[in-house]
Write a structure and sequence with these properties.
The structure holds two protein chains of two kinds.
Chain A (H helix, E strand, L loop, with lengths): L5 H9 L17 E7 L3 H14 L4 E4 L15 E2 L9 H18 L10 E5 L2 H16 L5 E4 H7 L14 E5 L3 E2 L2 H14 L3 E3 L4 E7 L2 E7 L4 E8 L5 H6 L7 E13 L7 E4 L4 E5 L4 E8 L11 H14 L8 E12 L5 E4 L5 E5 L9 H14 L13 H4 L16
Parallel strand pairs in A: 1-2, 1-11, 2-8, 4-13, 11-18
Antiparallel strand pairs in A: 3-7, 4-6, 5-6, 9-10, 10-11, 12-15, 12-16, 13-14, 14-15, 17-18
Helix pairs in contact in A: 2-6, 2-9, 3-9
Chain B lengths: L1 E4 L3 E4 L4 E5 L12 H10 L7 E7 L7 E7 L5 E6 H4 L2
Antiparallel strand pairs in B: 1-2, 3-4, 4-5, 5-6
Classes of the chains: A alpha/beta, B alpha+beta.
Chain lengths: ~425, ~90
């Protein structure tokens, strides 16, 4: 496969671009793999990539029931950031942020990582205090954070509705290194990097059973036949409970849906990622020109990959309150993606009670930004059978021990995180 | 999605508050293994893909707690009863 470079581009341009090859192999399943990864989403592909590249394990299969890019990796709003508050979270998301910063060089693929800044607005004195605390926590962990006053926000986004009667904008917390990435290219780049190193990426291969003998997983049953495995790693956010049930496990997870929206393409308008602090609305603009935005989860258990109208109305109201000018832009598409909502709003990267079966789940609505870190730490766990230091708090047993990581402090209500 | 409230009739989703799976029952705090029982009650969920009996509160209506049977794959609602009458 071609290594992408200016030279390769020039060569192909001279040849009329007829020489490009598929970026990764569409493999057929073999009988045995050292590691079988269930789920060919961003996290599964990243896990395979880092297993091969960082830990030298290349006898790996990634099983995907649909096709690469159809799941949550292509359904999110492409935001990357590490603006977390709690000690269990910040180092992990900052590792992920650092991996984003070097990702394109690392896997030789243009993922369009763009550090255009993430700005969270505040609208009251108590909210300013809360954001100052969050910013301080970030800086103590070595993450960039700036508390902006009204004029600071105005310099970045003069078009905002600063003097809204109910929720005037008082300032914002800015993470300049945050931004966006092109989510499809992230899936393709990891697929290509893993495939180049010998990983089999197998599409249209649904796992229908987990073979467990005397408390140890020895393989999987799939729609394309049985596959034996040394280790089985689950990265199936949205369907975690269903797959775990095949091994007799009940988990602290509920499946929910979140909706996302994109407008018709317009000229550059929104400079970075902006979030409304008085409701739930966030927005950025893709390089193609569409405004990409979203808001709250729908709030009920579902596997339907589509939401309902009350949230559509709520999201649009939030947008109109924050930046009334977007009322003149037409919404082009909206869609839903499944969320693996955990009971404390934070993920799980851990061994399961079954030997050889590893869990990567509970990403709630924040899985995309975590893709590189999740893949790296999950690969570490699988390869060394020990958690990576920055993901050590993401234990399955924390719900029993009480060592929860609840950023919002809302308790065991998945639809409120 | 519209929910058939036994008092109010078919009402819009936005009038209701969701409280999740109706199956978990608060365990006896005096039980010997109470901490294990409470862990299961508070945190573990079956999370089925298919019919689910779940609690909804008709906050902007009659303020009744309902048990709604809904398919999580399609959002089809098979029926709703008052939680008070269904409890046993």
């Amino acid at each position: 496969m071609t290594r992408f470079s200016l030279l390769a581009l020039a060569r192909e341009a001279l040849g009329g671009h007829r020489g490009w090859q598929p970026h990764w192999r569409d493999a057929t399943p073999r009988d045995f793999y050292e590691v079988v990864i269930v789920g060919g989403g961003g996290h599964g592909l990243a896990t395979a990539y880092y297993l091969a590249k960082e830990f030298g394990i290349t006898n790996v299969a990634v099983l995907e029931k649909g096709w690469i890019g159809n799941g949550n990796v292509g359904r999110n709003t492409t935001i990357i950031r590490s603006n977390y508050l709690l000690p269990g979270n910040v180092p992990f998301y900052e590792l992920s942020m650092k991996l984003w910063e070097g990702l394109e060089q690392d896997f030789n693929y243009n993922a369009m990582v763009s550090q255009r800044g993430v700005l969270n607005l505040f609208h009251s004195d108590p909210q300013r205090d809360a954001y100052a605390r969050r910013g301080n926590s970030m800086r103590l962990h070595g993450v960039d954070a700036e508390l902006l006053d009204r004029d600071g926000v105005r310099a970045i986004a003069p078009f905002l509705n600063f003097d809204d009667a109910r929720f005037p904008i008082q300032g914002g917390l800015l993470q300049p290194r945050g931004g966006t990435a092109r989510h499809d290219a992230v899936a393709w780049g990891y697929s290509r990097g893993a495939s180049l190193r010998g990983v089999d990426i197998i599409q249209n291969c649904e796992v229908t059973g987990l073979d467990v003998v005397q408390g140890r997983v020895i393989g999987v049953q799939t729609s394309r036949g049985p596959i034996r495995a040394g280790k089985v790693a689950m990265a199936v956010a949205g369907s975690t409970s269903r797959v775990a049930k095949m091994a007799g496990l009940t988990l602290p997870i509920e499946s929910h849906v979140i909706q996302a929206f994109v407008s018709e393409g317009i000229k550059p308008l929104i400079p970075g990622v902006i979030t409304f602090g008085a409701g739930h609305f966030y927005i950025s603009q893709s390089d193609k020109g569409g405004l990409v935005f979203g808001g709250d989860v729908d709030g009920y258990n579902t596997y339907a990959q589509r939401g309902n109208l009350p949230v559509v109305e709520d999201v649009c109201e939030g947008g109109m309150a924050l930046m009334p000018m977007i009322g003149r832009v037409r919404v082009l598409r909206n869609w839903g993606g499944l969320l693996d909502m955990s009971m404390d709003g934070s993920p799980i990267i851990d061994r399961s009670p079954i030997d050889g079966l590893y869990l990567n789940c509970g990403w709630c609505y924040g899985g995309f930004k975590a893709t590189p870190g999740s893949g790296f730490c999950f690969a570490h766990l699988i390869a060394k059978d020990a958690p990576h230091p920055v993901a050590a708090a993401y234990r399955l047993d924390r719900y029993a021990t009480g060592a929860l990581i609840d950023e919002k402090g809302v308790g065991a209500h998945p639809n409120l995180h | 999605m519209r929910i058939p409230c036994p008092y109010c009739g078919s009402r819009d989703l936005s009038e209701f508050v969701y409280h999740g799976d109706a199956a978990p029952k608060r365990p006896d705090p005096a039980a010997e293994n109470a901490s294990e029982l409470f862990y299961t009650y508070v945190y573990l969920r079956e999370n089925p893909a298919g019919p689910l009996r779940e609690l909804w509160y008709h906050a902007s209506g009659c303020r009744s707690w309902l048990i709604v049977t809904r398919d999580t794959r399609t959002h089809d609602i098979a029926g709703a009863v008052l939680a008070m009458e269904s409890a046993s």
